[in-house]
Specification:
By secondary structure, the protein is of the alpha+beta class. It contains 10 helices and 16 strands. Strands 1, 2, 6, 8, 9, 10 and 14 form a 7-stranded antiparallel β-sheet that branches. Strands 3-4-5-11-7 form a 5-stranded antiparallel β-sheet. The chain is elongated. About 25% of the residues have low confidence.
Length: about 325
């Protein structure tokens, strides 16, 4: 029934909401939970109704059904649904609108970007109070084909590649007001960098870079998928080193991206030669994973993802000789 409603393109979103409200009342009488039904995948489409509506609706002009599904779908599953569906259609604006509906004190503004760099400005109101009552504050955004997240947990800031192609990148993060915290890069002792002060969008900011050429894989693949900073909060601190302040704290994140193959240190001509040699093997053909040569993952088990297909020429010739 819900699938038929979602697939009915002739039904106006407000009419669909009326139908679902009647269904919700009927479910209550029968002891059935409509929110639980809304977490199930549609028989056509293979995704829950909320994800289907995110990918097909005209949310700027007809948001009624989208907002109804957003408020009725069980909250623990909503953030993942929102991010996955918005990434499928590449709509970061809708992602931020829906996230702010759920958590109005946290905003994320995307700055102009291209294939090689991007920036975001994240503002959290009452950060110390939030971290007193919840384990972390996580903000997600979409740039090009990739989904990213910045997690604030105690005195740790964690920038993670959630989904999309692997990348080699350099990240820079600023904190505003500048006297809120001093940042230190973690996980890379040989290149440990402490914060420095510089002029910026406001009078001063605390900022630090990650190591150049840091390679990240999406969280679905084995290997490194995040870079971490330690925040030494100041001036006034309490128990777990979170500043006692009700003012907004902003984090400006700037990221420069490179293609994964650049990390190998090969020149473009060397890469072409190696690829051509693999393709022109007399007996076997290397198949590519998503159009890229299969390579061993860093810190992996030593196995590589690849498949080989034998040519049929010799078999055909032997058949003709019979």
């Amino acid at each position: 029934m819900i699938t038929d409603l979602m697939l009915n393109e002739d039904l106006h979103p407000s009419e669909a909401v009326d139908f679902l409200e009647d269904l919700e009342n009927a479910c209550k009488k029968d002891g059935v939970s409509l929110p639980e039904l809304l977490t199930e995948e549609m028989s056509t489409g293979g995704v829950p109704p909320l994800m289907w509506e995110i990918q097909r609706c005209n949310w700027r002009e007809e948001p009624e059904l989208l907002l109804f599904l957003l408020t009725r779908t069980p909250s623990p599953k909503v953030p993942w649904m929102i991010r996955t569906a918005c990434q499928a259609v590449g709509d970061n604006e809708l992602l931020q609108l829906l996230r702010e509906t759920l958590e109005p004190d946290v905003s994320c503004q995307a700055l102009p970007s291209n294939n090689s760099e991007f920036g975001v400005c994240i503002t959290v109101k009452g950060l110390s109070q939030k971290l007193r009552h919840q384990s972390d504050v996580t903000v997600e955004w979409i740039v090009e084909e990739r989904a990213w997240a910045l997690k604030l947990k105690g005195d740790i800031l964690d920038l993670t590649l959630l989904d999309g192609p692997p990348t080699v990148f350099t990240a820079e993060i600023h904190v505003d007001p500048w006297n809120t915290a001093e940042l230190t890069l973690l996980d890379e002792p040989s290149t440990m960098a402490t914060a420095n002060m510089h002029a910026g969008l406001s009078d001063q900011k605390s900022s630090v870079h990650s190591s150049p050429g840091t390679a990240l894989l999406p969280i679905g693949r084995a290997g490194r998928n995040s870079v971490k900073w330690k925040a030494n909060w100041r001036p006034g601190t309490w128990g777990n080193n979170i500043p006692e302040t009700r003012t907004s704290v902003s984090f400006q994140v700037k990221v420069n991206l490179k293609q994964v193959l650049e990390a190998s240190g090969q020149s473009g001509e060397e890469e072409k030669t190696e690829k051509r040699a693999l393709e022109e093997d007399d007996d076997w053909v290397l198949e590519y994973d998503n159009g890229k040569p299969a390579v061993e993952e860093k810190d992996g088990s030593g196995w590589i993802l690849a498949s080989w297909t034998g040519k049929d020429k010799d078999l055909d010739e032997s058949d003709e000789g019979r």
